[in-house]
Backbone:
């Protein structure tokens, strides 16, 4: 059993849902989150009040699934990021589940 976690900006929601469908993961959960990105300041004139920061409406997706389905999703995410998303890539991780109650 694996725990699959994916984060993306909200604009990619339809794409991520297609990844789950292609991998035949029919049950997953989502949560709205705020992504933060800080940029280093080069001089004080860049920003008088604080470090420059962007906030992005994002989504977290998660599902308990099998390794073969994770492989399918990872291939889709890699392909998507290479073709369509250089500045805000979709991120995916997988964790092993040692024990669970179903």
Residues:
């Amino acid at each position: 059993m694996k725990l699959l976690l994916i984060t993306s900006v909200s604009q990619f929601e339809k794409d991520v849902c297609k990844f789950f469908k292609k991998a035949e993961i029919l049950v997953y959960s989502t949560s709205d989150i705020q992504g933060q990105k800080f940029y280093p300041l080069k001089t004080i004139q860049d920003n008088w009040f604080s470090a420059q920061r962007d906030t992005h409406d994002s989504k977290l997706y998660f599902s308990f699934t099998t390794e073969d389905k994770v492989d399918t999703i990872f291939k889709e995410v890699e392909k998507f990021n290479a073709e369509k998303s250089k500045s805000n890539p979709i991120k995916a991780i997988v964790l092993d589940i040692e024990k669970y109650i179903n």
Remarks:
- The chain has a mean pLDDT of 88.
- The helical segments are 13-22, 67-84.
- The first strand starts at residue 2 and ends at 9.
